[in-house]
Amino acid sequence: MNIVVSSSTADISMRSPVRWRVAWENELRLADHIELSDFFRKTYGPTGAFNAKPFEGHRSWAGARPELRVIGYDARGVAAHIGALRRFIKVGDVDLLVAELGLYGVRPDLEGLGITHSMRVMYPVLQKLGVPFGFGTVRHALKEHLTRLLARRGLATIISGVSVRSTLPDVYLKLSPTRVEDVLVLVLPIGRPISEWPTGTVIDRNGPEL
């Protein structure tokens, strides 16, 4: 899951109220894509120029394109974002329908807004979609952060010891068309309990990361 966690210490009491919008991809206008592209470049840019590059040319997605988005707005514009895409992944030998979550970001001045707010808005949306699980991948460096914000609150379970194989979003003559990553897997039980998540040490996306 493309994810950025802010390191800002801005005073929460000085922030404008955040309004949340659930938008299907076909509902977004050109102005929305331009605004989101700018948001992602500014949010991902501090983590490295390469991370901001996919959002050049007013593109508001990095790999796979989301099906729907939860977008937070305040007086300054886009404040937070998380995308979702329904897809079948293979966990070990089991084909499994999930809603992959990705493109998560919070504007650098809004650290206190947190991933939990975005997830709480997204959760009932996933329930309406009827998917058994939400699914995402994150870096090992974020384990303690996500455990504190999600796992301990019962919103998600973090699974380690899993390799995830994905396709690259573009074709490069000098690179393999797939990549395998050792990442943490984030599972949100939506329509089925976490006990029904299949066991397996390899997950195939059979497509690019969201």
Automatic annotation (TrEMBL):
Keywords: Acyltransferase, Cytoplasm, Nodulation, Transferase. InterPro entries: NodA, Nodulation_prot_NodA_CS. The keyword Chaperone does not apply. It comes from the Bacteria. GO terms for cellular component: cytosol. GO terms for molecular function: acyltransferase activity. It is found in: Cytoplasm. Its main location: cytoplasm. Belongs to the NodA family. This is Nodulation protein A. It comes from Bradyrhizobium valentinum.
